[in-house]
Amino acid sequence: MDAWLVWLVLAVVLGVVEVFTLTFVLGLLAAAALVAALLGAVGLPVAVQIIGFVAASAAGVYLVRPIMRRQLSRGPVVRSGVEGLVGRSAVVLQPVDRDRGLIKLSGEEWSARSIDEDLVIPVGAHVDVMEIDGATAVVYPREALP
């Protein structure tokens, strides 16, 4: 049996086992075995294939795996509660100025005030929530006001 075929079988076995363990190590070793199989398929000697396998394994385990683990450990950023309302759009129900107002935000009525102290936002205008200050949404109009 040719050496490249042995490397190919090893790559498949390691890949299948990786699917069940999810360690990221066996998958990288499977990729290294594929590198060795390619080296064998082009006719390079077994010693070169082994060196290629070791180099590809080391590169995968010491360079690629930490990056993969870091990316997967972050997880999606999920904002909830009042943090989840920042950046959302709302509709003005009562005029909003620097002191008071009322908006409809995520299906609920919220007290609101304008982030720009000199601005009065009329009823029906669409606004973006810039921050939540206690129980008050601090807003700014989406479009220029007339």
TrEMBL record:
It is a multi-pass membrane protein. GO terms for biological process: proteolysis. It is found in: Membrane. Signal peptide: none annotated. Pfam families: NfeD. GO terms for cellular component: plasma membrane. Keywords: Hydrolase, Membrane, Protease, Transmembrane, Transmembrane helix. Residues 82-141 form the NfeD-like C-terminal domain. InterPro entries: Membrane_assoc_protease, NA-bd_OB-fold, NfeD-like_C. Gene3D superfamilies: Nucleic acid-binding proteins (2.40.50.140). The chain crosses the membrane at residues 7-40, 46-64. One of its GO terms (molecular function) is peptidase activity. SUPFAM superfamilies: NfeD domain-like. This is Membrane protein implicated in regulation of membrane protease activity.
